[in-house]
Amino acid sequence: MVRFIISGKYIVSLILVCTIFLLNCATFYEQNIRFQQQFVQGNFESADGVLNKNKKAAKDKNRLLYFLQKGVVIQLLGRYEESNQFFEEAYLFTEDFQKNFILDAAGLFTNPNVKPYSGEDFEIVMIHYYKALNYLFLGKSEESLIECRRMNIKLNEFNDRYSKRKNRYKRDAFILNLMGIVYEANTEVNNAYISYRNALEAYEEDYSLHFGINPPKQLIHDLMRTAYLNGFKEDLAGYEKKYGLRYEHQVRDQGELIFFWHNGLGPVKDEWSLNFFIVKGKGSLVTFVNEDMGLTFPFMMDGGSGGGGLGDLKFVRVAFPKYREREAYYRSAEIVVNTARYTLEVSENINAIAFAVLEDRMVRELANSILRLAIKQAAEQAVRKKNENIGALLSVTNALSEKTDTRNWQTLPYHISYARIPLPKGENQMELICQSPRKTRKYSHPFSVHIADKETQFYLFHTLKSIPLE
What we know:
This protein is α+β, with helices and mostly antiparallel strands and 470 residues long. 46% of the residues lie in helices and 22% in strands. It is built from 16 helices and 13 strands. The strands form three sheets. It has a five-stranded mixed beta sheet, covered by helices on one side. It has a four-stranded mixed beta sheet with strand order 9-10-2-13. A hairpin with a 2-residue loop joins β7 and β8. α3 runs antiparallel to α4. 40% of the residues are buried.
């Protein structure tokens, strides 16, 4: 239960602040539609040009998103060092981010868009994933491992923060798998085995249940291989029995390619609203009630001298964030090398993680939104007692400024898949083939990779086609 007092001396300032924020009612996606259009069409130079025309964004409340969008676009243009400079700026912002209590208060009087965007938990983790990829493309595997470790540290921090709250995104199985891949590429087979084992546990305990992703077959094979290389015979026998497989070791006499497929685009944030009836209780107690969803939020209201003043209100609208899914157009893909075919296995479902993270904190979002509305209504009633006309104006301002935060990182992929492909030394010609749901349409991307003697190379391709938002 929350008690707060609205003082009349802030009324004029409140109205002026509220009015400013009425001018910007579009969602973040709508505000950045020119960038989105260029990015989705694969016009990365043009998308980068749109960002460059708004360089002030690097210093305003959306600067984190500016760094993230720039980092992705520059990476897709193949400028990996420059891309990491922007991702490092994003990382430093999240590390140095300090709550601004004045802006927090303004957010309660208007809407949360006034505050700097600090990122969703999974978005902060993905900063390090993109940096790790850039380092791999630059041949800097040690730096890539540092970013993987940063990801685990950040996830541990989130788990400590939410130890008493529902939180399904506790471990990132895909990142643990990536760590194993990089360790093995560095011939650190013991560390690789530990990472693969941790990844398998995360897939089986978290991802299968919450995000609809089972352990990739490649991961199980990699785990068995590193168990063999480490001499862990009992562990290997246990995996053979558990998965009904018989491991036969083959000495590697050639190089390999680790191919990452970013498919589609992650969700965009929008808003939805609920109507709450206001029930007047004893004294200054009022309760916001939505019977359809079984929600009740009690508040102790004090509008200054004269008491509460919310008894004449029947119902109010409250805005909350929601995600809108951009379903990936292509559902499966494979790499073709000569006559061999390698299936790309889905290993990260960013769309599902985004929805789960928001749902897990929905009770907190509801409470914050109701608190914001309660403060607005208390201010309105306090003003009406002094001037009915100004009170009516504030009522309109409150209604129009009732917005939720629709900002999010909108260049993330829907899915991430991968495959491990053995390749001989020298130049190798191959082809990525992506299939639509019923394999009625396909997309082909021919490419080549040069492999040095027993070298592990890394390659990324992002198919951007999604089912359009309505």
